[in-house]
Write a structure and sequence with these properties.
alpha/beta, Cytochrome Bc1 Complex, Chain A, domain 1, six-stranded mixed sheet, 9 helices, 6 strands, about 20% strand, globular, Peptidase_M16_C, metal ion binding, Metalloenz_LuxS/M16, Insulinase family protein
Length: about 230
């Protein structure tokens, strides 16, 4: 812990829910835009996998050129926004996950979710897309500057991840040299049963189409928030 004072206990490691089969939690709200979040969880990953995960995150959804945005929004117009990335947690011992998110019209929720799940399960990556993501990420590393005021926070974040010093030089080298086959093999490891949350208007969301993608469980605000009871 940086600074003076009594050290505090670190928070418990992040853990995701485990499901045996694809599960969709649906919460009704009278809205025009449905919000969809997808989690494909994995156990905690070695610290050395973070550069690969970061590069894959840029391939999937680093910016408007990411695969999720291009395939779902630009090519098919199924969503207002679409993104995906690999999250290995903020501390040693946190669970990892392949994450996806969508904002779409309620009547397009089923189609958008089906396509996103297909993309997240896809293990073949286009070489040109990987090359563009690699170049963009390396440029971010080259242009990144840590300001004096932000240094303590950066150092603490590195320590939380098990790094005794600045890991960016080594990470950049891994990003520069990792091969396409290794990226595809690592992505294939994130093939767990997805956990999906859908916030939308049940009068406009096709629940039968959602049921074709996984077990649908209807939840209520009272089950999620004590103050809603």
């Amino acid at each position: 812990m940086l600074g003076a004072g009594d050290p505090v206990e670190p928070p418990p490691p992040l853990r995701y829910r485990s499901v045996a089969a694809p599960t969709i939690f649906f919460l009704h709200k009278d809205v025009a835009q449905a919000r969809i979040d997808i989690v494909l969880p994995r156990p905690p990953q070695p610290t050395g996998e973070r550069p690969r995960a970061e590069l894959l995150g840029h391939v999937l959804g680093g910016d408007m050129s990411g695969m999720a945005f291009q395939e779902i929004r630009e090519a098919r117009g199924l969503a207002y926004h679409a993104g995906a990335h690999l999250d290995l947690g903020d501390r040693v011992g946190d669970d990892a996950a392949l994450l996806g998110s969508l904002g779409t019209q309620c009547d397009k929720a089923g189609g958008a979710l089906e396509l996103m799940l297909d993309l997240l399960r896809r293990t073949e990556l286009a070489p040109d897309r990987v090359a563009a993501a690699r170049l963009g990420l390396l440029r971010e590393y080259a242009g990144e500057r840590i300001t004096p005021r932000s240094r303590p926070g950066w150092v603490q974040s590195w320590l939380d991840l098990g790094h005794p010093g600045d890991p960016r030089l080594g990470a950049a080298q891994t990003i520069r040299t990792v091969e396409l086959a290794a990226l595809q093999a690592y992505l294939a490891e994130f093939a767990a049963a997805p956990i999906v949350s859908v916030l939308g208007d049940r009068r406009r969301v096709d629940l039968d189409r959602l049921r074709a993608l996984g077990e649908v469980q209807i939840v209520t605000p009272a089950a999620l928030f004590p103050y809603a009871r």
